[in-house]
Amino acid sequence: MGTLNGLLIPIIGLVALALLCITIRLCVTDAKYRGKSPLLVTVLAVFFFPWGLIAWLLFRPEPLDSNRGQRPFRLEDHRLQ
Length: 81
Fold this sequence. Notes:
Layout: H1 2-33, H2 38-47, H3 51-59
Helix pairs in contact: 1-2, 2-3
C-alpha cells in the first residue's frame, strides 16, 4: 500500500503538467488564429485559471481572414441607418 501512495502523487503531478502544456498549446494556437497576442492570452488563461480561460472562450474575437490577415467582412458592421 505504501508503494501505491508513493506513486500516486507523481502520477497526479504528471497529469496536471500534461494538462497545463495542452492548455498553453491550445491558447497559443487559438490566439494566433484570431490575431491576438499569444503571450497575453496564455497569461490570462494560466494565471487566472479557470476564470481567465472561461473569459477567453466567451469573449474571444472573430478569426482573421486567412487570405489578407484582416477580419471577415460583415455587412452589419457597415450599415447606415
